[in-house]
Amino acid sequence: MPSNVIFLFLLFLTLINLAVMPSILSSLTLSSAFAQFDDRILLAWNQGPTKERILNFVKNVTNPESPSYLPEEERIAVFDNDGTLWSEKPTYFEGFFILDRLETLYKTNPVIQQQVQEKPEFRQLLEKNFTNLHLSEKDILDLALATHSNITQTEFNSMVEKWAETARHP
Fold first, then answer.
1. Contacts 24+ apart (CB under 8 A), 88-91
2. CA 20 from chain center: how many Å?
3. Mean pLDDT of the chain
4. Which residues contact 58 (CB under 8 A, 6 or more apart)?
5. With 50 as the cut, is the pLDDT of residue 16 above it?
6. How far apart are CA 126 and CA 152, in angstroms?
7. The pLDDT value given to residue 113
8. So what's the pLDDT on residue 57?
9. DSSP assigned state of 91
């Protein structure tokens, strides 16, 4: 996908969220949020269990009668530009997964060992040398391809679940 198309798509998501997020955030921060909570929130979202769970969560933590109620000063919500609660700092979880997977594969996979020798960027990542690391879009795609190839969806899911149990935020 050309970078200008990606930029326009991200800009579109940002603009959509600028319209949607104020209503969500006001619902999270106002003590009278439950009274203001209505069907205008998340209009662009499909009806379904995910939307329902999110709306019920917000309704419960903002309702003083609910056992899940949280006072305003204890409510913290951090949303990504697409409205998700997604960690991005110092990098996305997927980035850490790829780094850990690269390290694991390097120990036993001759193809990965050769790629690390041929690509200084891969070698820098493996050595956890992030100083002056410059990865192009192609480098990132090559890295994802190298660490996510030749496995089934079931194997991948199992691998991610195991990784998530032990992985720690740096």
1. 90/170
2. 19
3. 75
4. 24, 27, 28, 33, 37
5. no
6. 24
7. 92
8. 87
9. S
